[in-house]
Give the backbone structure.
Amino acid sequence: MKSVFLVCAVACYSVLGLSGCVLGPDFQAPVPQLAERWAPVASEQGHSRTVESAVDPRWWDSFGDAQLSALVREARQSNFDVQLAASRLEQSRAIRRQIAADRLPAVDGSLAYSRSRNSQEGLNDPSGHSGKQAFNLWNGGLGISWEADLWGRVKRSVEAADASVQMAEEDRHGVQLLVIVQTAQHYIQLRATQQALAVVQQNLQIARRSLELTRLQVKEGVATDLEVSEAAAQVAEIEARTAPLQQRSAQLINALSLLLAREPRAMAQQLSEPLAVPAFVADVPVGLPSELAQRRPDIRRAEAQLHGATASIGMARADFYPRITLSGSLGFQAMQLSDLGSWGARSFAFGPGMSVPLFEGGRLQGALQLQEGRQQEAAIAYRQTVLRAWHEVDDAMVAYQAGQRRRDSLKQAVEHSQHALDSVHQQYAQGTVDFLNVLTVQNVLLANQAALVESTAQVSLSLVDVYAALGGGWQG
């Protein structure tokens, strides 16, 4: 008995001593090809410009809008997409735990009882009763099995599972960033729509006053019915602009409600009061290009995908080599419960088993080529992701600066249009110009004011795009 255990122990130690070999290439984290510094973007005096200081992980607070910050904070906690991504991450971790269990021996315990009666005409009756009466049978014991990871197949599979967990985690980071960005975008668009509605209502009051003035002039014989009709048409045309803006506001409020996992119109009272479009006036910290790969979830995910593909090559190569499994059992069997623990009721079995792939018809070679191809694809995808990220950052910075210049020009256009409207109203009241001039100038003012509101919002939206391209936000 002692010699059996000694042989088994020697075999186990021998196999363990061989288990240090790991096939396949070791993963080397790629170095992204990025510039040392961002390309300078021209910035006019008084404009917010980009500076290479650390990116604020809570950049939405920089807009100075408490309601926006509160919405982002709630969305990060309540959003269903964030919760789904967190659930998928936990599933990935559970799969990893299943795979990692192969590194340890599997131990099973068993205890069984049966009452049987064998055939009197059968070959044998282990009970010794020749099938003439029933008998009890008690079985109990432990079974153990363990695959010796000689070629690192299990280690590579755990490594690939770790990469899958990392991919799921970066997916969650990406969803968090997307939800933050969408919340900020919808909120900015809502405030811009409310400001546009306020502009329409202001112009509507001006048009109504012009209509009243025209009617008075008709009574005095200064104006004609044609001018009254033109003034009334102007009022109706401006009134028609309010309904689409009101619809747009309601839809944006519902969009924010959905992001925060609330029912439709749940936030109508909270967001119905018009506020200014959130604006960012300070310099924008954008960090260094070399930091982009650590902030962007898509780049981090692409790196993890490449890591998993590299580890899978080692798994495919290990399938070419023998698998050795150590198994054993130790138990007791007796026909009486009182004899179950006796030394004579013992039973045991120990020994290694080996399987060797002799002929697979090219299946293993095909599997290896497939994994090598997937690694090449993942490497290309990583470089593509880095390049796309760099382009997105550069495009967002250019759009932010261009938006500020357009906004400044529209501010001047609104000021000139307002001055022109005041002048033409005076001239119309004096009878020196007809109402067509008033209509023309007011339409120009309304168009410039609407464009200014849209441009102001676009500047803030462009800044949101800058931070989204930089990958800032999910770390907060």
Q: What stands out?
A: The longest helix spans residues 363-430.
